[in-house]
Amino acid sequence: RTVAKDLQAAHYLAALMGDIAPVWLPLLSFVIAGAVAFATGTSWGTMAILVPVCLPLTAELAHAAPGAEVLLFLVGASVLDGAICGDHCSLISDTSVMSSIATGCDHVEHVRTQIPYALLAMVAAGLCGYLFVAFSGGTAWWLSYPMGLGLMLGWLFWRGRRAEAEVV
């Protein structure tokens, strides 16, 4: 935390990002956290890297924006959520390795079967949670739950297929 503060990482990134609208920060930090956790296989490490950078960055960019408190809350949540989702989908995550070992499932097959559901939840959270709530200024946050649930159910009814029981 002190390293990011001493280096003034938030100021540097704010200048680097230029004229990005603050309402995009929750979705952007969500996607970045998911990518970092997927690549590293650690949700805790991703949180430790991104929380001290993303929260001050949001405070710097959104300090004068309407609903700045909502954006700060959303960015904090999106970093945690993206880190967990990316870790869940990662082949090198310790929890994925332990789950496949504990169930006796081939590790790559285990991760391959988890990714579509995790990505569906990630898309619903990103669109209906972080993006919708940020653009609504936090006033219609309660609508994000039925919207996300409807999106996921709609996708599963449209693209899902019935699993056939395998006879061993």
SS content category:
mainly alpha
The global form is flat
Strand content: under 5%
Task: State the share of residues found in helices, binned by percent.
Answer: over 70%
Which sheet architecture does the biggest sheet show? none
Flag low-confidence runs: none
Number of strands: 0
Helices, by number, come to 8
CA distance, first residue to last residue: 54 Å
Order of helices and strands: HHHHHHHH
Mean pLDDT, rounded to whole units?
87
Rg estimate, integer Å: 18 Å
Question: What characteristics describe this protein?
Answer:
168 residues; mainly alpha; 8 helices; 76% helix; 0% strand
List the helices and strands and how they pair.
Elements: H1 2-6, H2 9-17, H3 25-40, H4 43-62, H5 68-89, H6 94-103, H7 107-135, H8 144-159
Description:
The protein has 168 residues and is mainly α. The chain is built from eight helices and no strands. It has helices spanning 2-6, 9-17, 25-40, 43-62, 68-89, 94-103, 107-135, 144-159. Helix 3 packs parallel to helix 5. The protein is flat, with a radius of gyration of 18 Å. The mean pLDDT is 87.
